[in-house]
Amino acid sequence: MQYLSIKEQKIERIQKIFTPLLGETIERYGFVELLDEDDGEWEAWHEIPLRLDIGKTTLCISWEKFEDLALAQQDDTDQHWDDDVMRWRYEGIEALDTALHNKIVAVALATYEESAFWSRLLIYLQSGAVLDIYNALDENAYALYTKDTIKGALIEVCSL
User: Which of 72, 102, 107, 113 has the most Cβ atoms closer than 10 angstroms to its Cβ?
Assistant: First the structure.
């Protein structure tokens, strides 16, 4: 996956990837867990791209550094790991669980209120909620808002 840091490149990539997905439903998501060998527990590892199954497309989304974004429709993450230490999980993140079975109506790139970093991908849902996939200091993080509560600069990239 290629990471983009320039705002205009991110906008172009978001538009290219998401425009055909407008009106499609988020069916499933997947994130990686790693086995902690010290305690034998599985722990979320949000540095690996999030997978969103949207319609017939699997979209991979990943943030790194302060504002570098990667979007791809294919990803080879599974080819690099042993099933004994890495697994995909498909539930357990409240914001993503709530976004399931919603149609995408718009997508925006955003900053935080007092930040110059374009480090938030906002996916507007038919339900009125907004899924925020953002950079949490070199890993992916997720939140769900109503559109009236979003603060910061934003650029609507594509919409129905």
Answer: 107
